[in-house]
Amino acid sequence: MKSLIVKRIIAVGIALSAWELLPRLGIIDPLFIPPLSQVVVTINGLLESGELPTHTLISLQRAFSGLTAAVLVGIPLGLLLGGWFPRLQQGVEPLMELFAQANPVILAHIIIFFLGIGEGAKIFIIGWLCIWPITFSTIAGIRDVEAQLVKAARSFGLGRGSLFFRIVLPAAAPAIFTGLRLSAGYAFIMLIASEMMGASSGLGWLVVQSQESYHVQRIFAGAVVITALAVITDLLLKLLERRTVIWTNTGELDICDTHEPKRVNLYQEEAP
Amino acid sequence: MEFPQSFRDHLLRSSGLTVFLLLWELAPRLEWIDPDFLPAFSTVMVEVCELFQEGALQIHLLVSIWRGVTGLLLALALGLPLGLVLGRYYRDLAETINPLLRVLSQVNPFTLLPVFILFFGIGETAKVAVVAWVCLWPVLFYTITASREVPLILVKTAVSMGASSEEMLLKVIVPAALPTIFVGIRIAACLTFYILVAAEMLGAGAGLGWLVHNSAMNYQIPRIYAGAAFIILLGFLLSRFLRYLERGLFPWQFEAMFQLSGEPAQLAWRPRKAASIAFACTVLVALVIGGFQVDKINRASAQGGHTGHHGHQTMAEDAPGGPAAGGHGSMHHGGTSVPSKGRGSDLDMSDMTMEEEH
Q1: Does B316 contact chain A (CB < 8 Å)?
Q2: ipTM of the complex in this document
Q3: Which of residues 65-84 of A touch B (CB under 8 A)?
Q4: Count of domains observed in chain B
Q5: Does any domain span residue B320?
Q6: Is B141 found in the same domain as B18?
Q7: Is residue A234 predicted with pLDDT exceeding 50?
Q8: Would you state the pLDDT for residue B272?
Q9: What is the C-alpha separation between B205 and B335, in angstroms, rounded?
Q10: Nearest-CA distance from A2 to chain B in Å?
Q11: Which of A109, A227, A255 minimises the CB distance to B216?
Q12: Class of domain A34-244
């Protein structure tokens, strides 16, 4: 295990030094891919000028508002549909599948008609995007709760409420977390897209802005920051999952768990 | 659960959709919502038909599909062998560079778009590269996992029967890994469709995303809905089709499900060798023809748009530009992302030369 970590650090080190050296030695045109050190300097400059914190904060705020809204709507919706109204769930499932396909960026112009060009539209886009993986995986999690657990709990005389909160919800929690992590990933991808399309702030805007002024180093700086944010968010969600869902073996906390997040057995889970 | 067994099931499953479409039709007609903002469902469908008759839909569909398929094939060409090698022969290396791959896979494709544009110009290559990037990671990760987790008993059996290493690869490992790999391909395809359309809204001169974007620029509201509805339907059909294909190709993965639903395994068709070769050839020919077509469309839109070129829009907030009629193809929109005005024509040139390489 120790040696693996050392090896991994060495691999990352090699990749980073390649990024530094290849442009420096002129093997790659440094105008196209600036060396790492320059990117770091640029990030530092953006940090000092206060641009980066401002835009990062704005982007994060949008992402988290959307994600929170999706969690607040999606999990109860999934619980209701999966747990209490399975017939209704069958009825609305094709509709939800279509909605999950409805790319909110395509609908951005329409959303702007209704919500204006302010924050509302962007938060709606993110929320719409995030709600479907969360809802679907909640439904799947509820549906796949082991019948034996429920039966055992019933025979011990648990009431409806405590059956739900002490058996069903914990058993569905890992699936819900999977949906949450998928959602967070998509949220970041599409947030940047929507900020690139029509915004005057945020990290996506920063990148587009740098592109328009041919600030290659800034593009890379923006890309690095966005990637770092995505990685950190994923890590935090994993940490949260490990802290709250302690009864399943979620394995090592590591950005590089070797397995994909356990895909729940429902066909929409990957439709972003 | 996915196979409705009776008429009642069908009825139940379609009820949600029916209610939604009815509401969509009635709400604007009864003026609950301003029909200028939300045209009725029938109006939108009429618009789809019009787009189809104009030929705009086919053109942009072709462009989008060509980009998507080319990118996906590139990702497959890179990801499958790499994943197989990493998962099968260099497991330590795979473990070692795993964090690197994970972080790379988190790199946002939209932030890469400007970088790829720097590299490849604003032509097709940048978009295809973004698609390939998006597709590469699911394909690679699923291939690594799949080829690493081939059941040991299969491998041991094959070894004890004296299989050569080539036979082992082609007859044991690849077939055993294929179902999982296919899941990766399916995820990649669906995700790509999603991202490609968004990327086309950001900077393209053709494609389904551009069609919607252009309609929005010209305030053709029914047309936005028409384009969006078509795209959504297409994505839906794509994911359904891939699921169907998965079931057809790898029925053993779904045995339990078939038993439960009492469905005989009649979906289990095996592609014959000739059929697969014919399929591959068709895809190749289609790609080449599609490439020429896409090239032609891009040229047409570049030439047609030269007059109004300097006024072209940069972002969603900008004023509508270009002629409202003949929205497809007649307006140059090639360089949304690199809209420095003085250099517009230079960029066009680089655009053209990029295309000629195809």
Answers
A1: yes
A2: 0.79
A3: none
A4: 2
A5: no
A6: no
A7: yes
A8: 67
A9: 8
A10: 12
A11: A109
A12: mainly alpha
